[in-house]
Amino acid sequence: MVVCGLACWRCRWLLPLLLGLAIIMGIIALAGRGWLESESQPYVQQASLWESCTRGEEDLNWSCESLMDYGWGRAAAATYLVGFVILVICFALAVIAFSVEILRFNFVRGIGGLLFVVAAFQIIGLVIYPVKFTEEIPLTGDNMFSWAYGFGWASTVVVIGCAFFFCCLPNWEDEVLGNIKPTYYYSSPERAPYLN
Hints:
Elements: H1 14-31, E1 36-38, E2 45-47, E3 51-54, E4 63-66, H2 71-99, H3 105-136, E5 143-145, H4 147-168, H5 173-177
Antiparallel strand pairs: 1-2, 1-5, 2-3, 3-4
Helix pairs in contact: 1-2, 1-4, 2-3, 3-4
Membrane topology: Multi-pass membrane protein
Subcellular location: Cell junction, Desmosome; Cell membrane; Cytoplasm
Keywords: Apoptosis, Cell adhesion, Cell junction, Cell membrane, Cytoplasm, Membrane, Transmembrane, Transmembrane helix
């Protein structure tokens, strides 16, 4: 029977892999044009973190304006981007930390603290964007915050989960490193007659 819990040294790569997944979702959020989209046809509005585009019902060409012309647009993009850059740094530090045979657990806890900073920056960006967008950009038709915005939140949720695990991992240092000896239970025949 194979058990892959905290005691499994090979399973130490699960946390860096989850951080890699958060990076992939962050890239999709940063590059995606689906932060805000029209909910139904005709599709006349779409927006990314960087720009807002509209078109007429019969028009095929999108007319786009940069959100970087707005202070809140620069703030939302900057906070999310800063969080993403720190996330990439945390991923590199996690790979280094788990590659070393002698794992430095205080170093791992520091990565967890940085991941909470990442989550704070990303949440700030993800909250500023919809609040200020709906206040200052005229919306056409029924709109919804869509898939790319959802990937931004998914990345943030994974980062928060990893932050807790990185911070709590030093509490199980002996289990992770395999320093705990197995416990064997012996029972005599007099105490367990059913084994005869």
